Structures are given as C-alpha cells and as structure tokens.
Amino acid sequence: MASALVLDASSGAPLHEQLYQALRTAMVTGRLPAGTRLLATRALAEQLDLSRNTVMTAYTRLLAEGYLVGRHGSGTYVADELPERALSARRAPAPSAARRANPPSLSKRGAVLAAAPPLFPFEQDVSGSTMAFRLGMPALDAFPHELWGRLHHERWRRSWRDTLSHRDPRGFRPLREALANYLATSRGVRCAPEQVLIVNGTQQALSLTVQVLLDPGDAAWVEDPGYPPVRGTLIAAGAALVPVPVDAEGLDVEAANRLRPDARLAVVTPSSQHPLGVHMSLRRRRALLEWAERTNAWVFEDDYDSEFRYAGRPFAALQGLTPDARVIYSGTFGKVLSPSLRLGYLVVPEALIDVFVKARMLADLRSPSLEQAVLTDFINQGHFSRHLRRMRVLYAERQALLVEEARRELRGLLEVGPAETGMHLVGWLPPGMDDRTAAARAAAAGVVALPLSAFRSQTSGRGALVLGYAAVPEPECSEGVRRLRQALG
Length: 489
Fold this sequence. Notes:
With 489 residues, the protein is an alpha/beta fold.
C-alpha cells in the first residue's frame, strides 16, 4: 500500500494534505480497489516516516467524505462506492409500462395544469449569445451597471441593518411612495402609496389577482392573440377562458359581450397590446370600464412596456380614466431595467388592499428588500427618468434600423413596418406561409423569431413573426436580418 503513495517533502503543501490526495487518487484510479483494508495509522506512519497524527488527520477526512469506512474491531476499508460514482450522472431508466399506465396522482387543479398546453410553446433553443430577435428583453448592454453598483454599495453601507430587517409584505414604503408619485404624473394612475404592492413581476401580480377574484369555472376574457402565460395562469386557476379578438382598436368589447357577458375578469394590455402593439381606443376603454361596473366584474390592466412610446406622450392608463374604476393595475421593472431584477407592482382599489396583502404574504411573504431600497434611490435621485429618456431614444433608433434592414433585405419575404410603441415588431409573412415553419428555420439559422400563431387561441389568421429589437445592438440586428433572409429565402 505504501508503495502506491508518493509524498514530496519539498512541497509547500502540508503532509496530511499530500497524504489525503495520494490516498484519494489511489482509490479513484483503482490502485486501491473497493474493499481494500488499509494499514493501521501507526503502521502506515512508520512506513512513510510520518507522525501518527498526520496519518490520522488524512484518514479522518477520507472517512468523513465517504472514501473510507470503518468496521468496528476489524479496521478501515476502501468504500464499496466512492463519492465520484454516487454523484455522477446516471441515465434515467426508461419508464415502465406500469408507470406509463399509472401516472402520478394529481389534484383536480394539478390535472388541469398538466393537461394545459406549454406556457411558452414558441421558445426556440438558439445556440450562442445572440440577442436577435429575443422578445421582451431590454437593452442589457445599456443597463447602468456602474451606477447601480454604486447605489447598491451606498445603500448597504448606509442602512444594511434596516434593509435586512425589513418585513412589510406590501413592499418598501419609500419605494411605494416613489411609485405612487411616478404613476400619477406619468401614467395618470389614481392611487395612494397604501394601494401599491411590490410583487415579483407581472406573472405574480396576475396570479394574486386570480386567486383573490376568481372561482373555478368563472369566465375570463383574454386577448386573442395574447400573452400565453396569461392563459396558463387562468387555466391553472380553473377559469373558463374566453378568447376575444383584437383589431386595430384593441380588444373587441362588443364581441366579448356577445361571447360571455357574465365573465368575472378581463385581462388586457391596452397601452400596447401584446403582441400586436395596437393601442386600445378611448371608445373601447370606456366600454370595458362600463361593462366591469355594470356586471360587478374586474379588469386586470397589464401596463408592461407603456413607457416606450416614440410619438408623443405615453397613453394614460385605463385605471385612471374614471374614479373608483374596477381595475387592478400592474407594471414591471423587468422590461425597463432587467428581467433578473424580479420587481413589479400592483395598484389595487382601497377595498381590496387587505385581502391582496394577505394573498401576497401567503405567496412568498415579500420581495427582496435590498433591491427595493436600491430601486428607490434610483428613482428618487432622478436616474430612472433619465434612463427612460435614453432608452426611448435608443429603442427608436434600433426599431428604425430593423425596419430599414428588413425593407432592404427581406422584401417579399417578411413585411416589417414601424410601430409607435413597444419593444418589438410584427413581421408579416406572405399569405399561406406557415409561421411555425418559418420560426423553426430562423432558429436553425441562429435567430429567435417567434411565430404569431403561438400567441393565438384560434389557429386561423395570416402568419407572422414577432421580432424583439430593444436588446439588439446594431451589428447583431444587421446580422440577424441577413440570417432571416437565408432562412426564409
């Protein structure tokens, strides 16, 4: 055994560390096979001219890590299964016929969720780090990382104890105050800080709303085409989905009333409809609010990227059109700053504050406190408004570049026109061309171009590709368009 161990007295590493490594290597390589009985610590110390404590230290570590096993009254042996083998990935056995015939037992809600279509059926596995043309992603290359890091450091140095002890499930009070002021001046939202709840993004905002306001079997209007996770959230809650067509004026309220006037909730993106980008007309907005008031229903307003309007001021929020509107208003910082920030907000009517706070506590208690505090400083020191102004200019430039490149390179293959709002464009394919096939070809060429049909509940309609441009720098945009031409040509 001792002959298998090589120690270097001139090495700077401690002798017990060298012995540990030598023994471990001998076991892993098979020179000390499983079940081999090791020399006693005193005997090995004598053979290697080491102190017994050095040998005992190495043995103790190998025993603790599972390489050795001790047998009372017998000695110390190499383990039958080394940690490397226990931790290595193993091929999962093929499911047996019995397991396939008897799937795991689920609740009724779990069974509904399991049977639902994938939330993101359109996700494409595109290799590489290209951002062309990923949907819903802000310009990460323009994120103010140095400023954010400085604010992070200053907030931690100034008030780390208060930050660590923050426990309000509604969110950091100064952030809610800053948001209430911002929403009132920039979006026309009617609210006090007490009505603002900080959440982990729009998806959690909708989940809380559905939990509080819908019973299983209740009908809910959803835009068609619309954001697939909205459908997934409602399906998981047992709601009856009512896909409502969207035209140039937004969600067709008259059609919705013909389909299910008894719906309990309408989920809409009125400022920039996702994914078509149209703005809901004032006539439709008033009709929607009147329906909610008349039927005692609610409207969930997803204001996900309303800050990015390139012609005139952003449209006022639906929530602020009338006093006491039956609207749950939601916004997110994921589209403005970074999706990894995981911070969004809800504005709820006063009568619903208590129940929403309870639902928020039961969901996950609260959002990360330090990020909330840093975001508060970012807003109150004027950085947020400056960042928005820079992003509007940058996104307008990137949209114009995409439109120009598409006109030059994709004529006859993809019709891409400008939009007044948003972070993506819809490119229309020639009539009769399947957009899922086109999206698959684009993915094979290294470009993310999502099929519009994946956003639809109905399968009919002209095919199109949804192209995000906000996160795409100029060289990547040009290269992405070139690859699209190759894929579609």
